[in-house]
Amino acid sequence: MFRIIKKSLKIGVVTGQYRRAEKPALPIIQEAKDKTKLFKRSLAIREVDTGSCNACEMEMNALLNPVYDAERFGIHIAASPRHADALVVTGPVTVNMERALKDVHKQTPDPKIVIALGDCAIDCGMFKNSYAVTGPVERHIPVDIRIPGCPPRPAEILEALSELRKPTV
Amino acid sequence: MTEARPYDDLLKATFPAIVQGDPVCGESSHFQVPKDLLPAITRYLHTQPNLRGRLTLIWACDHRPVRDAYGLHYLFTLEVSHYWVVLSIELSGNERLFPSITPHIHAAKWYEREIRDMFGLIPQGHPDLRRLVRHEHWPKGMHPLRKEFPWDRVLGRQQGEHHFRRIEGEGVFEVPVGPIHAGIIESGHFRFSVAGEPIMQLELHHFWKHRGVEKLFEQQMLIGAVPLAERVSGDTTVGHSLAYCQAVETLLNLQVPRRARYLRSLFLELERLYNHLGDIGAMCNDTAYALAHAHCGRMKERIMQLNDRLTGSRFLRDVLRVGGVTRDIENRQLTDLVDELNRIQPDFSEVGAIIFANASLTDRLETTGILNEQTAWDHAVMGVVGRASGRDCDLRRDRPFAAYDELPVAVALYRYGDVRARLRVRGDEIHESIRLIREILGKIPDGPVANEPSCSPNPGDWTLSAVEGWRGEILYMVMAGEGGRIHRCKVRDPSFVNWPAIQWAALGNIIPDFPLINKSFNLSYAGNDL
Questions:
Q1: Closest Cα of chain A to B397: distance in Å?
Q2: CB–CB of B234 and A91 under 8 A?
Q3: Could you report the predicted ipTM of this complex, rounded to two decimals?
Q4: What is the pLDDT of residue A169?
Q5: Which CATH superfamily is domain B213-494 in?
């Protein structure tokens, strides 16, 4: 046990060792910011995969590693939609996941915000019009924020989330 | 090729009714087989001690509009020589039944159910004809890979319920998990039957994320479908795009420059490196060993940032193209790569030593989720999971591709088949990958990085290509259509084969250990569901 503590001390703090992202590619609307204000400085996120290629999931996971450490901004991942303030949805909505997505949305207590993460969630990306895909996320549930990219870099996700929660003057 | 003759002759002597066709690619034989003889021949191939054919792939193909027939193809890898044998049968006219080989070969189970769903062909004698890809709410008669089915059709919905296998008795209860899980992972459903603590039965209900990838391939040009292949499974971007590119290059008869082949191997090893590092961390995390998880996450992030610096993509996207690679790596960047490796290698060695010396971690990992060698063989399990269960197979050594014919690979092999063995395999492969990358950097020749395709393939030509991705064997079957389009593209991620095996590895373990077992397999849902 002492060895790994010693190792951690030797490595030091790695948080923040990444290239900052520029302003969010898609502007965040005032309405979404107002909705988010209620959550004050914490945000519990439930991630729902409705048919992504799993790259977006990997970048969401990367948010929790010591380099990005999203928890320092009060962002954490809830294990159940019932504990969540925000739903992060990735991937085009497949026919098989359509019901599950609507269920999750229903189970998330109000007030809530929905974040469409990645190109597929925003407009189905490469999978547009496929027989197995029913459409982008906003066809099924109202979407507040869109974070484009295939997949968006963790720095870009963090940037969008902090822009969302920036106090408005 | 000379070695191959004995197998061909042996098969032809045993079954005089089979007809030899043209070899499809590299070291392989191709036979046309009478339909009713298929079970006997596959059984012979699978069980004969001097052949030991491992069922590697089954795919179907709708030949319309060229001719009114369905082709069914069975690919076996002979255990002794890693030689490929393809058996083909054809269903013409209104024939919809084909003999099932599942009663003799377990590994065929999901393939045959998939063919039934996608083509509406019925495997006669299959023990389990429930729907697999089509969930029960799909209307009847929807078989997407038939040529008359429009790719952008709106499906509609019917009432229906999936029936799980039931164990009944006093104290037996079922635990449904998914499709949406507690962590940030993909969607899939697990149904546990439990009495007390141990799992008596685990049944998977997947294909929630079915996006119609194979049908989408058929809408694309041969040259232009690389971005789609990259998105089959995001964490295996290089593996899938490489397998696809190789198949198309064989069809186009296109040579890849030597430097490009080395770069391809380099990218494949980088992909292996970051995924294995992440997996080791995630397995530690599932035993609540958060510090080790943090260290592995940190190292994984370093490699992904390195990928970003080298190619402009953390997942190495848009790096491969048909004929080579899209961008060269400059010498300045190679120095950066070497520096990073020099940092990661001692770093990982230290963390690895700490992890394996940890008694409480070992206690959780040992004897958990054992997949024994016989079960692994029965289900044709390969890749990391196979190598942890004593299945000595690695395409980089057995059927070299990219630059691996010039780069000998030491294959990590463990016998116990428990979670710890899978962790061990990953640890060894990280060291081996780092060694390989160094060797690649030492040997990489100068020269161009891509050749332009010049000819277009004949419609109906098809080929197979195989790549050892970080999970295991990735297979692509690509058949050319009219005007440089794709007629059929069969994608097989290693997850499709290894998922059923997890049902056996979980037996007798307690549910709290299942996340750990699942993580140690770390299979792709997206690559499985397509």
A1: 28
A2: no
A3: 0.91
A4: 59
A5: Cytochrome-c3 Hydrogenase, chain B (1.10.645.10)
